Amino acid sequence: MRMDHSWSRDLAMSASANVGTGMTYALFHGCDEQDVKILTDWLKMTTCSAGHPLHLPALFAELQLRRHKRLTQDNWRKLVTLYAHTGQYGNRAPGAQPTYLQEDAFDYDNTTRDVLGMYQETGFLEKGLIKLRRWLKQMISQMEVIKTTVPKARTDFIATESDRIGERLEAMMDDYEELIAECKLITDGALLLTNAIWNLIAQRDNIATQSIAADSREIASAAKKDGSAMKAIALLTMTFLPGTFVASFFAMPLLDWQAPRDAPVVSHRFWIYWAVTVPLTAAVLLLWSTWYLLWDAQRDSMGPRNGRSKLEAFEMHVLKALGFDRMRQKPNTFSGNDTTDTMTDDMA
Question: Residue 241: helix, strand or coil by DSSP?
Fold first, then answer.
């Protein structure tokens, strides 16, 4: 007889009995010093039943029941500890933030791993308990067979001890029923706790999203203020630009305002100004239009998401070729992605 060998401190027993002489031989495997002491004490207290063939198997069942109760209690304590660790029950001050929503309250990965490990361990334990209960039932059914195979001189002894051992085996079956029910409660609690942990993760993500949204609103508000300031600067520039241009134009040496009344004010080389200004202005406008059209076509071909990194690389390459690569440097004290997106939208 042996339980699941994957458990720690696995126990096994091999026994043989001679119903004629009343001798039973058994080998217990996996017992430590404490188990040996317990078995020795039980044998001393039940010497009157030593001649029954199922006496030692019943003691082995008692030892297994004691071990299984301890394993079930350990799993209960683990479940309660995990519930307390995740803040699923317990009193807290009104208005205080729950423990599971506090920063770095617990490690979600390790906690989930512990819950799943406990669920699997309890499931294996439940199967082992069902197996052992079935084994106890088979032992009880063997009582009647033993009564019919012993010599007549030992019939009364076997009948008396069979009744006593049978009552104890039935009581152990009831204990195993309770342990099986507890294991089911533990597995159900582990499933509920797993769902609760996933809900906690969703809540933490929701809180993080709200925080990001609040930061985004602040950034948008600051950008709006900056936009208003830029509009004011642009308005002032447009107000003074005509006067500035006229003053600069009239101040050119090509216009001689000190000339006599009959002499011309405009120099005969005034055409050089237009010969240089008009082509240069056209070249600047053409260069800007070409760059914008290429950038817009590249953005449309890549898509809004997949082509973002390639688009930024292309934009960086173009600006670097124009000598404006320093404008695209990302500051170290802010999010690089937000800066890139903002600059890209502004340029668009």
Answer: helix
- Per the CB < 8 A criterion, the answer to whether 142 and 99 are in contact is no
Contact 183, 108 (CB under 8 A): no
- The H or E element containing residue 341 is helix 336-347
Highest mean pLDDT: which range of 63-72, 151-160, 260-269, 328-337? 63-72
- d(C-alpha 191, C-alpha 184), whole Å: 11
Q: How far does CA 11 lie from the centroid of its chain?
A: 37
Whether the predicted pLDDT of 88 surpasses 50: yes
- Residue for token pair 């009157």: 48
- What's the confidence (pLDDT) of residue 25? 79
- H or E stretch at 27: strand 23-29
Spell out a b/e string for 84-113, using b for 16 or more CB atoms within 10 Å of the CB, else e.
ebbbbeeeeeeeeeeebeeeebbeeeebbe
d(C-alpha 138, C-alpha 132), whole Å: 10
What distance in Å separates the CA atoms of residue 291 and residue 60, rounded to the nearest whole number? 87
CA separation for the pair 323, 329 (Å, rounded): 13
| CA 124 distance to own-chain centroid | 25
On whether the pTM is more than 0.85, the answer is no
φ and ψ of 27, to 5 deg = -125, 115
- Categorize the per-residue pLDDT at 140 as very low, low, confident or very high, splitting at 50, 70 and 90: confident
pLDDT band at residue 177 under the 50/70/90 scheme: very high
Return the residue matching tokens 């099986």: 180
Of 297, 301, 306, 296, residue with least CA distance to 344:
296
